[in-house]
Amino acid sequence: MSDSLDIERLRGQSWIRSIEYHDSLTSTNDRARAIALEGEPELPILIVAQRQTAGRGRGQNRWWTGDGGLACTLLFDPQEPGIVPRYQAMIPLAAAVAIVDAVAKSLAGRQVGLHWPNDVFVAGRKLAGVLVEGLPDGRQILGIGLNVNNALAEAPPELAETATTLAELTGSVQDRTEVLAALLWHLESALGQLAANPESLGRRADQLCLQHGRPLCLRSGSQDVRGICRGIAPDGALVLETPAGYKYYYSGVLVHDAG
Ligand code: BTN
């Protein structure tokens, strides 16, 4: 099976207005920002890179993109699918749900799900991550990194223990064009669901949440909050049962969440 990306095929079948492909970029999110600052291009635009030299994760994290992985960013206007401002904070969660749906078929029999706020995990290892950055005018930069055929042996050593790839999980090289086509299809659907019925998207995310019942520690501002995870609320909040009762968190970083 070929590992090359057939961008023409993706152009033919997707709801995306245009697709930019690059052999190498610092970060597809950075490229999306540069395009947005150039003016008012027709959206959505998808930027795909074979390699990223400075891929970014949430917070101070980096994102390693080896050959054979998928790194892409959608630059879009959330008003176009009709996502109201109050629910735009759930865009990363919608993207994570779309990733789960896109890979579920090839991972049949495996439990693939979410770690709040928007990581995709299988068998205790991270398969994909999402980095959404909003622009002041409301346009959104939605970056997705998905480990497909990239070799973890070439990754920074710490990833060997914590990450996984579709190829590793299935035992065979995956068709990245099909994976990306499925991802785009499910992304359109999840963003549409977020527009039409945000709470149903939140409930779906809760069903996919793999952290139910686990002790978690959330760094929220300067505080560490410990509690038992009671899933994801319909509005996207992380629900923690703490000694002071159920608490709802819309931001923060999970610490010691080994998966
Ligand atoms: C995370 O897990 O912390 C988020 C990782 C997001 C990585 C993707 S790869 C495509 C896009 N470009 C970037 O620089 N980051 C995102």
| Bound ligands | biotin
Could you spell the SSE succession in H and E letters?
Answer: HEHEEHEEEEHHHHEEEEE
Number of strands: 12
Query: Numbering strands along the chain, what is their spatial order in the largest sheet?
Result: 1-2-3-7-6-5-4
State the secondary-structure class: alpha+beta
Ranges where pLDDT stays below 50 over 5 or more residues in a row are none
User: Roughly what fraction of the amino acids lie in strands?
Assistant: 25-35%
Compute the separation of the termini in Å: 31 Å
What best-fitting shape do the alpha-carbon axes yield? globular
Mean pLDDT rating = 94
Portion of residues in helices? 25-40%
Based on the model shown, name its key terms.
single chain, alpha+beta, seven-stranded mixed beta sheet, globular, binds biotin
Care to describe what's here?
With 259 residues, the chain is α+β, with helices and mostly antiparallel strands. Helices cover 29% and strands 30% of the residues. The chain is built from seven helices and twelve strands. The strands form two sheets. The protein has a seven-stranded mixed β-sheet, sandwiched between helices. A five-stranded antiparallel β-sheet has the order 11-10-9-8-12. Helix 3 (91-104) crosses helix 7. It is globular. It starts with 6 loop residues before the first helix and ends with a strand. The mean pLDDT is 94. The chain binds biotin.
In short:
The protein is α+β, with helices and mostly antiparallel strands. The chain contains seven helices and twelve strands.
